[in-house]
Structures are given as structure tokens and as C-alpha cells.
């Protein structure tokens, strides 16, 4: 039924873009203080799509290590930075 709706485009799969109806968000450019990350850094020199492939072992290995030894994380927060062709995990 939704595919036959006249308000939809691109073969009825996505809603039309109505950019004029939404105001542009306001923003402010700020400079963050220097931060240092203490912990383990891993670099992967393959595309980001490969990292999130369910058959890839890299993200599972990090989770399994945490499940076996929760103290392997020095802090409660850790994340993924530099989402280009090279991945860098910092915590």
C-alpha cells in the first residue's frame, strides 16, 4: 500500500525530501581542550565496512575480552575515533 502512495518517491521506498519545511539548525564552532587517552590503541588498515561485517572477528574479540576480564577497561567510557580508512579505538 505505501508503495502506491503519490507522496512518496524513489519507487515508493523513501519519503520525499522536503528541506524547505525544516529550519537549518544553528551551530557554534568551539575549540575543545587537549585530551589524552590512556589505554590500548588498535589500528585496522581496512575499510570501516569490514569492521562492522558480522563475520569479522575484530569487534567480537574486544567484547569477549571485556566479558572474560571486565578490568581490562581502565575507564567506563571507551569509544571509536577516526572513522576513516584507518580505525583507532581509544579508551
Radius of gyration: 21 Å
Q: Strand sequence of the main sheet, in spatial order?
A: 1-3-2
How would a textbook summarize the main sheet? 3 strands, antiparallel
How much of the sequence lies in strands comes to 5-15%
The residue fraction in helices comes out at: 10-25%
Low-pLDDT stretches are 81-91
Span between termini: 48 Å
Q: Would you tell me the structural class of the helices and strands?
A: alpha+beta
Can you count the helices?
Answer: 2
Write down the overall mean pLDDT: 62
Count of strand segments: 3
**Broad shape:** flat
The succession of helices and strands, N to C, reads EHHEE
Name a few traits of the molecule.
disordered C terminus; single chain; 3 strands; Reg_factor_effector_dom_sf; 3-stranded antiparallel β-sheet; alpha+beta; 11% strand; 91 residues; 2 helices; Right origin-binding protein
Task: Write a structural description.
The chain has 91 residues and is of the alpha+beta class. It has a domain at 38-91. It is built from 2 helices and 3 strands; from the N terminus they run βααββ. It has helices spanning 48-51, 58-68; strands at 42-44, 79-81, 87-90. It has a 3-stranded antiparallel beta sheet, with no helix packed on it. β2 (79-81) and β3 (87-90) form a beta hairpin. It is flat, with a radius of gyration of 21 Å. It starts with 41 loop residues before the first strand and ends with a strand. This is Right origin-binding protein. It comes from Ewingella americana.
Amino acid at each position: 500500500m505505501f508503495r502506491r502512495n503519490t507522496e512518496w518517491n524513489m519507487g515508493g521506498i523513501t519519503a520525499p525530501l522536503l528541506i524547505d519545511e525544516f529550519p537549518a539548525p544553528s551551530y557554534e564552532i568551539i575549540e575543545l581542550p587537549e585530551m589524552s587517552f590512556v589505554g590500548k590503541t588498535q589500528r585496522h588498515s581496512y575499510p570501516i565496512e569490514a569492521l562492522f561485517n558480522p563475520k569479522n572477528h575484530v569487534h567480537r574479540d574486544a567484547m569477549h575480552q571485556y566479558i572474560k576480564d571486565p578490568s581490562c577497561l581502565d575507564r567506563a567510557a571507551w569509544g571509536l575515533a577516526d572513522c576513516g580508512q584507518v580505525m583507532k579505538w581509544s579508551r
